[in-house]
């Protein structure tokens, strides 16, 4: 069994102006594909070769873990985006955000602040903890909350420089502000409903 490079759920140009077609093509065809290729090469003819991606992340270390986690993180990130985004979440997720952060606008501000504080490469997530509360967290490099059975990822933004440098250079804050217009809140809400069910 090999880990597949999943297809993007949109065409390259459909996330403009959040990211350009050039950025998305390089991000997907070079960075994401390289993680998949490296992972398959490293697990070939090993005990991990018959395991699924989540199992590999849970059981692996070092380079294998890093590549597997990056594949998982990117698979999740692509689903967090949609050309038809830009609206507020609805229903239970919006209520949970407002209960935790007092308003949706305050949540956005704190999320943006967290991305600014993420030194170097990594990811900024909205997750739900096992006690039901929401939390904004940063992970460094390839680390992922998918390894924590007490944490349900709801939403993520990639803040590695390759995700935005061509379009924004060092202006990470501008990249994050554009993110809100392309968030797939339906995907985030499905993750939330799975966590609370």
Explain what this protein looks like in three dimensions:
The chain is mainly alpha-helical and about 200 residues long. About 50% of the residues lie in helices and about 10% in strands. It is built from 8 helices and 3 strands. The chain has helices at about 20-45, 55-60, 60-80, 90-100, 105-115, 165-170, 170-180, 185-195, and strands at about 120-130, 135-140, 150-160. The protein has a 3-stranded antiparallel beta sheet, sandwiched between helices. A hairpin with a 4-residue loop joins strand 1 and strand 2 (about 135-140). Helix 2 (about 55-60) crosses helix 3 (about 60-80). The radius of gyration is 17 Å and the shape is globular. This is Superoxide dismutase. GO terms for molecular function: metal ion binding; superoxide dismutase activity. Its EC number is 1.15.1.1. Destroys radicals which are normally produced within the cells and which are toxic to biological systems. It holds the Pfam family Sod_Fe_N.
Distance between the termini: 32 Å
Q: Summarize the amount of helix as a percent range.
A: 40-55%
Strand order in the largest sheet: 2-1-3
Query: What are the secondary-structure elements, in order, as H or E?
Result: HHHHHEEEHHH
Structural class: mainly alpha
Q: Mind summarizing the main beta sheet?
A: 3 strands, antiparallel
pLDDT < 50 stretches:
none
Mean pLDDT: 94
Shape: globular
Question: Treating each run of at least 4 consecutive H or I residues as one helix, how many helices?
Answer: 8
How many beta-strand elements? 3
The whole-angstrom Rg is: 17 Å
What fraction of residues sit in β-strands? 5-15%
Looking at how many chains there are and whether they match, the oligomeric state comes to single chain
């Amino acid at each position: 069994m090999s880990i597949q490079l999943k297809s993007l759920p949109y065409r390259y140009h459909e996330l403009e102006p959040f990211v350009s077609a050039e950025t998305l093509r390089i991000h997907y065809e070079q960075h994401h594909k390289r993680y998949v290729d490296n992972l398959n090469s490293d697990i070939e003819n090993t005990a991990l070769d018959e395991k699924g991606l989540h199992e590999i992340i849970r059981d692996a270390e070092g380079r294998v873990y890093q590549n597997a986690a990056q594949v998982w993180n990117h698979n999740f990130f692509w689903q967090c985006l949609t050309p038809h985004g830009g609206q507020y979440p609805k229903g239970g997720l919006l209520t949970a955000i407002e209960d935790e952060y007092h308003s949706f606008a305050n949540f956005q501000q704190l999320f943006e602040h967290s991305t600014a504080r993420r030194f170097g490469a990594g990811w900024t997530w909205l997750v739900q903890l096992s006690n039901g509360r929401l939390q904004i967290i940063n992970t460094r490099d390839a680390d992922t909350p998918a390894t924590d059975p007490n944490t349900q990822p709801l939403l993520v933004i990639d803040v590695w420089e390759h995700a935005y440098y061509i379009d924004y250079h060092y202006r990470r804050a501008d990249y994050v502000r554009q993110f809100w217009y392309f968030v797939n809140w339906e995907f985030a809400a499905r993750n939330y409903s799975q966590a609370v069910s």
